[in-house]
Structure formats: C-alpha cells, structure tokens
C-alpha cells in the first residue's frame, strides 16, 4: 500500500531546530498531522496564534518515558531529529542528550508499536579512510575521536538494538547541513561568519548538504518500507575558503582573506584553554574541531540517490537561496 496518499500522524523531536523545523513544514505541506516535542522554555517563546491546526507542540523532554509512550500510542511514524551538536560540551552532557535520549524514545516507540522510525544521525559516526567513505565504513575509536562522534555512534547502537527488537527503523547520516534559520546555532554559524565579515577562514574542506535535500530524501525513505539501513546524505565537498568567498559574493559582503592552518589553531587552542581556566566558560577552539580541519574525505552519496531517485542540489543553488534570505 502506498502510504504517501494517507494522512499519517507524525511525532518529531528537535522540531524547533534547523532540520526539525523544515521537516515539520514538509509534513504539514503533505497533509499529515504532526506532534513536536519541545522543552517548556521553548514552548513559552512560541507564538500560539501562528500554530496551524494540524500541528501540536508537546511540552516535555526526551527523558520523560511515560509521556513519550502516551504520545506515540497515537502516532504512526517517528522522526528523531533532536540532538546536541557540539565540539566543546563535556562527554557526559553529550551522552545524556544524544545517547540516553535516543534510548528512551526507541524504547517508547517499541512499547507504543509505531509503524516507522527514522533516526537522524551524522557522518561523524562513519570511519575515515583514504578512499571514499560509504555506509559500510566501520567505526573505529581512537584518541582523535570527538566526544560528539562517540555520542552519535552510541546513539546509533540504540537504534540498531531497537531494530533487533522489532522496530521498523532506518537512519540517515547528513554531512554539514546548510540552510536558513538561526545563524547562531550549529552549522549555520558558517553563515554568520560571512554576515559578520570575519577576516579569517580555516584552511581545510568540509562535506555539505542542503537542508531541503535532507528533508525530501528523508521523507521519501520514511514513506517506504526500508528497514535496517543507513543512508549518507551528502551533496559534495568544498573548501572553507571557496564556500566563504562564494557566499560573501552572493551576500555582497567582504570575504575572509586570512587563512588559518591547523598548526596556528593549535597554538590558539592553548591560549583559549588558559582563558577558560582564568575566566571560565566554554572553549572556542577544541582539539576535535582542529582535527576535523585535517580531514579531506568525501562521503559517498550514491546509495541515497539510488534509493530515493533524488538529485542533490548544486552548492551554488544553496548559496543563492541563503543569500536571498539575508538581504
């Protein structure tokens, strides 16, 4: 049966984040009903008069198992998009949010017997290699593994465990997500870097994907009967220098001209550590952050293309879209 024509009840976590907000918009446009889990502090800031009738915000947290079970009993599909993306938070904080939160909603989904479960993971869980990285790249932990990557990997283990226990689930592994939204959060800080006309850029490359592609491909996958699979969602690879220059041109801003190497950043990291010890607060420059700049891998995207029959947008299209919203 093709469920794409049916009105389904979706439950989504992380609904106020970049990915979650676009996912809600997509689901509503397809005629589905959506319940989104939000923290009490977030709920207070929402304009209740602008919430459409087929969207309900559920006040609560991922740690509230009983609440999740109650809400999922009336939900068909779950999209778990909540997660903490950080290279500076303590491992315990990341494990609590990314691992325990995932374990709780997986258990709730099993008890509530939901039809489909999609876990939004990250390319950070895939092992690096000299060649292209695929969905079959095996996880290996070493001294350079970030706490974030470890937490996302352990979160994936909870999903695989749920699948073994009968959960109809799959996961997607996006690269750096580009889009429009709060430029003070997560990957959108790259846009703020250009908005603020910062003079420097890190020497290195990164893999990227348009948030609209993530949404469309994830929606196609959750409408299918695919289970026990993961999909890399990655449009391509570019240098920070090239990305900042292209975005600055599109936004009529000055592009950063000063390239900072990982070696220089390592020296700045030491000074940043001294600042934290004297003044407190989070570190701005961390070792995992620097290690990420040393990578030059490409994350293979053919599996996702084959399964969804969707072509990734060109980076120039994404940049033009972002720039048009910043005028």
Automatic annotation (TrEMBL):
One of its GO terms (cellular component) is cytoplasm. Signal peptide: none annotated. It holds the Pfam family Epimerase. GO terms for molecular function: aldehyde dehydrogenase (NAD+) activity. Gene3D superfamilies: NAD(P)-binding Rossmann-like Domain. Residues 11-224 form the NAD-dependent epimerase/dehydratase domain. InterPro entries: Epimerase_deHydtase, NAD(P)-bd_dom_sf, NAD(P)-dependent_oxidoreduct. This is Nucleoside-diphosphate-sugar epimerase. It comes from Sediminitomix flava.
